[in-house]
Amino acid sequence: MNKIKPITWCALVALLPFIFSSCEDYLTIDEVENRTIATDYYDSPQKLEQAVIGIYVDMRRALLHNHAWLMYGEGRAGDLTLELDMMDDVAAQRLTNGTLPLRQLTDWGYFYDAIQDANHLLEKLGPAKGELLSSYQYNLYRGEALALKSMAYFYLTRIWGAVPSAEAADRGTLLNQQEVLTRCVQWAAEAKPLLPRLLLNDDGIVSTALTEVRFNKTAVSLLLAHEQLWLGKGQEAYDGLTAVFEGQGTNSLSNFGLSLGKDSNPDITQQPYSGNPIHITKEKLEAIYPVGDTRRSMFTIPATGTTASLIVAKQDLLMIYSTKEINLLMAEAAWLAGQLEAAKSYLTMAAAGATENYALLTAGTFADALLRERHRILMGSGQRFFDLIRFDKVGQFLPSYTEGDLAQGAAYWPLSAQSIQTNGLAQNEYWSN
Amino acid sequence: MKLLPKDVWKFTVAVFASFAGLPSIQAQEILVLDSLPATNTASLENLLQGQVAGLQVKSWTGTAGSQSIINLRGLHLNTTDESTMPLFMVNGVPIIANPSAVTGINPLTYYSAEQIERVEIIKDIDQLAALGVQAPNGAINLIIKEGTSGPLHVHAHAAAGVDYVAGFDAEKDAFYNYHSASREAVYAKQSLIQRQHISVDGGGDYGSYLFGMNNYMASGAIKDAGFQRQNLFVNAKYKIAEPFSIQFYTNLALADRDGRYAGQYNRDLSGTEVADEGFFMDDNKNVGLLSSMDLVYRFSPNFHLRSVAGLSYETAGRDLYIPSNILDGEVLAGSEAFKRQMLSVHTSLNYTHQFSELLNLKVTVGNQVVNSDYRITAVEGMKGLESGGSDYVKVVTGYNANQAKAYSDSEREKLLSFYGTLNWDYKQKFFLNMVARADGSSLYQNKWAFYPALSLVYDLREDTDLPARFKVGYGKTGQRSGPEQYRGELVGLGDYYGGNKLGITQLYAPFTDAKSVDIYQFDAKVDVDIQSYLRMELGYFNKRYRDFTYMRFLPNIQGLDYAFETGAALQLHGLEMNVQGQWIRRKAFSWASNLNVAAYRNSVTELPADLQQTSLAHLSALTTGDRISSLVAYEGSQSRIIGNSQPELFGGLTNDLRVGKVALGFTLTYSFGADAVLESYESAYVAEQLQTGFPMATGETAFYFKNDLGKESFRYQGIERIESVDFVRLGRVGVAYHFGDDLQKWKIRDAALILTGENLWTFSSYSGLNPEENITGIRKADLGYTGTALPASIVLGMKLTF
Questions:
Q1: How many cross-chain Cβ pairs, A to B, lie less than 8 Å apart?
Q2: Where in the cell is it found (chain B) (predicted)?
Q3: B110-143: pLDDT as tens digits
């Protein structure tokens, strides 16, 4: 065998990296049949839309498990009841008694699932712009992801107060409510110009049914204003709402709710409105809706018995923002912006059917009237307890809580053991006692 | 050769040819198999039982056609994980050797012992590193017989006998919660074994040929069940031109096992009667194919190119039907199909250079490609008779069928490797082996892993009177981490908007740092020819495993439930000893023995931090130095070690005696140091956290297992007792009579009458039926992971060579 020259050896050695790098392609299996793997899955608009829908489904889980949306709201406030074992504990503020449903309600996992879904989609959307998606699809999906993330954090901070960030830049950092709300506002504001007033279906035709179950311009505007009002930024909320809604016909407006459907998690209530009516005591009903208030028609009031039941017109939807809330938020924004007359006007429009004359309200009495009307109009939406926190009325309506309790965080929910495990977080001061 | 006729019966003759037999330095042990089978089962691995130090072949079940548990210095975080199995090769071609989960039929039944010339056992790192990530737990290479030169030869062998479960006593039956009458109805007192083999071979200057067929049928321990296998094989070698030769090998096997419901599909035999299984069907069918083509081109006497292409293919199909009389008014039908294929191409350049009379070098550089593709499809449905189900029509349609399930999955994998070996030989007394292999795997984002090894041998016989040789080696290899651990997965959440938009999200994120487990192995060995008739080999090895892949459960602000990470470390080390004696070697009488002993100890050397938040939480009772094979249970609220599932001393003793035309041989296998934890049939509770602790039953241990059933519910399983499963077993025994020249007048060159027995006697204090029956070391109350009764067998056979 002839001797190989050193230069040939050098050439062969230099060639090795090229051989190995070309092998990389051979060793990469792009497609795994019959399996949805995280790598290279999102190669069509339909698949990206699946990820969008995934966020909605996780949000639905967060609000539907154990009738959470109601427990966080009117259930805890003591207004509405369901035939559930935990109901008495929730209404009596025994939120740490250790039963499984309560432990699940104190677990924020589903909200963070939705946030992770949104961030995952936002990451996948970047490279898809202009390649896979039309500008309409790109804007819609991105707007939905941002709005849903904003909504998830908004729920988190209203339920638990200070909550940790799940963003890549500062994951795990505990954010106070002000910081959370500030971020929520940023994301909602970013989503607002991206989302259309009415959505198109797969055939490119405007679909009111689709618009009603996906984030749209109406919904994100209400979300943004709602968050701004929590931050006390009335003028910004008023300006934003006015720009979107003033002069708009009803055809361009839409409710927004979560479409109910099958869930692969059997623990999730699929039909929350059937088989388990939502009750209110007649005594409570009378106190909230005086005789003559036409909103009493929201309830079935039997002649006998001590309870009435809430009528849910759309049983295939968990309502998040209805168009009824536009005037309520406009009224609140105008009031905080110092425009009392406009505020009274919006409140009067919102409170159609009320027995009170809101034209006579003063700056001092407006807040109570607004809270009362939000109570009446949004009954069953899960907003009540959050409103009590925002209007600083928890102590008034739930006198079992002292000022000291509230200062320690009693208005917020305790955290499950799972939620404070391995992340350095501590239990809410009130509930740790 | 008259002194030691070729066809003299024996189980195996262990020839440790690494010293004198092979020109180069080979660490492997070579078992030369006689042309007669040494086992009455169809499973080839049982041939190796008790023959090689460190090779455990655990006869855990009596279900015919099942694979014994095979371990050759294998370890994993889960000590019963399939990844502890050694690599099996046929003529150097890697084969699919593990049973599919669909039929459980052992692929090592596709070959009969008569086809195998010898078995190479590879344990040392200087050879394992050259096989890379394929062989972290050693390798077993089956070398197939070739045709012998000369005129046509015909070999025929036929044998028949019985399997039987030895008489059972009521104590053991009660212990299994079996009703005696039911058990008797399920476990046959005797069932027939039969086997036939015929092969034809010949050869000349052109090359050689060998072809033939085999048939095997047995029921094993279970009455009305049965296993059978037929295979055809051909091995042809052809010299195309002087420097160029080619060898084809093909083995096509059909294997079929019928199952039964009582005692096999459903292990519960607590009732007094066994239902009529006239309509029951559990039909398992495998087709196994191995085909290889071996091309050799010799450029010069010192330089040749070799390329071996192989295809190992298996389809496993199962059809199941359970009639209404068994399922209380409902019928169940199911069908599964699993197709596995492994295509490999191995090309190497081999060059030998003699620098001087003192120094020789052998260089091999090679490349290997292994592509595997596994696909499974399964459907199963159940239907009530009131909804139109029928015992007579074994079909469950989707309409109206409830609990209809369908499943489909596929898995592909590519391995691309480059390797080189340098074998230096100085004065035939110093040998230096240098190995390096780069493995590229499609499993990981970081594709390449590098496995180097070095070994040094010093043969004292050249310089001193001491008839000994020393060898030390050190190197690295790898153990594959499964694909579920690296690529991330998406999951369907549910329907949305009219039920027609499926939401998906990440179940877990891709694990970009996924890699194989690193194994660092040290070998040291000395062999001594104590006398001309006695040879002893003593070795020590130490394997350190690092970077297993496991799950870490994430805080619930992550939005993902878990992520994978690598960590944890284990150690397996041990002493191995082989003593081989050829005590008497005379024409009228000869006696040879082989004793092998392995003393092993595995231990945990590192566990991940915050173990409770990982998928290794079940190891939390362990600390550094504890055995990974520890059996762990709760006592009160504390988990603690209560036993050890792996033996620490095991091996075998084989004796081979010949007196005139009669040969007698037997193999004893033994195992010490392992325990079995026996779950109680009485104390089992499903409850939320028991506030008052586990309610112990009288006469049972204070230990219990706790399984999380989800939704705050736990199953508490009491432990009746913990027993040693030490045993000594007369694994195989045989007597043969050789007719020698007596039949020459009928053109029969050789003939032998052979009587073989298997599992005839087991000495053990274990109160169950078989001390090896528990795969995990735990005999579960529902008998999951517990084998069926292991039958004894006696077979009488006749072998003829024309």
A1: 167
A2: Cell outer membrane
A3: 999 999 999 999 999 999 999 999 999 999 999 9
Out of 1.10.357.10, 1.25.40.390, 3.30.70.100, 1.20.1080.10, which CATH number does the structure's domain A45-260+314-337+379-420 have?
Answer: 1.25.40.390
CB contact residues (below 8 A), chain A span 70-99, against chain B: none
Q: Hey, where are the domains in chain B?
A: 12-481+516-801
Helices A340-350 and A366-377 pack at an angle, to 10 degrees, of 20
Cα-based distances in Å from B450 to A355, B135, B774: 82, 14, 37
B185 contacts B161 by C-beta, under 8 angstroms: no
**What does the alpha-carbon distance between residue A143 and residue A197 come to, in Å, rounded to a whole number?**
12
Chain A residues with CB-CB distance to B556 below 8 A = 107-109, 112, 418-419
Residue A212, chain B, CB below 8 Å: the answer is: no
Q: Kindly report the backbone phi and psi dihedral angles of residue A34, in degrees, each rounded to the nearest multiple of 5, phi listed first.
A: 60, 25
Interface of A with B in 253-312 (CB under 8 A): 259, 261-265, 267-268
Distance, in Å, from the CA atom of A105 to the CA atom of A412, rounded to the nearest integer, reads 12
Residues in CB range of B544: below 8 A, 6 or more apart: B519, B520, B521, B569, B570, B571, B605
Query: Which of A3, A22, A37 is the mutation pick for testing B, counting most B CBs within 10 A?
Result: A37
All residues of chain B having their beta carbon less than 8 Å from the beta carbon of residue A120 are 505-506, 559
Phi and psi at residue A28, to the nearest 5°? -100, 120
Q: Residue window 3-22, chain A: list those with CB within 8 Å of chain B.
A: 20
Q: How close does chain A come to B638, measured CA to CA in Å?
A: 21
pLDDT (0 to 100) of residue B241: 86
* Res B19: pLDDT: 28
Tokens of B721: 């007792």
**Does the distance separating the beta carbons of A58 and B491 come in below 8 Å?**
no
Beta strands in B489-629, from DSSP E residues, in sequence order:
489-496, 501-508, 517-531, 534-553, 562-585, 589-606
Question: Is A166's CB within 8 Å of B411's CB?
Answer: no
CB < 8 Å to A60, chain B: 494, 496
C-alpha distances out from residue A391 to A151, A235, B194, B590, Å: 20, 17, 88, 102
Q: What's the rounded Cα separation, in Å, for the pair A254 and A198? A: 8
Residues found in chain A: 433
Predicted pLDDT of residue B739: 85
Number of H helices, E strands in chain A: 20, 9
Give me the residues of chain B with pLDDT under 70, please: 1-28, 33-38, 168, 395-403, 483-485, 499, 688-693
Domain segments of chain A as ranges = 45-260+314-337+379-420, 279-310
Token pair in block for residue B368: 């290997």
The pLDDT of residue B458: 94
For the CA atoms of chain B, what is the radius of gyration?
28
Amino acid at A323: T
Which of residues 126 through 185 in chain A touch B, CB cutoff 8 A?
Answer: 164, 166, 171-172
Asked if residue B649 lies in contact with residue B53, where contact means CB atoms within 8 angstroms, the answer is no
Q: Which two tokens stand for residue B26?
A: 């080979």
CB-based burial of residue B252 (10 Å sphere; 0-12 exposed, 13-18 middle, 19+ buried)? middle
The answer to whether the beta carbons of residues A111 and A310 sit under 8 Å apart is no
The two counts, helices (H) then strands (E), for chain B are 4, 38
What pLDDT sits at residue A251? 84
pLDDT of residue A6: 65
Interatomic CA distance for residues A74 and A81, integer angstroms: 8
Q: What share of chain A is helix, strand, coil (3-state, %, to 5)?
A: 55, 5, 35
Q: Which CATH superfamily hosts domain B12-481+516-801? A: TonB-dependent receptor, beta-barrel domain (2.40.170.20)
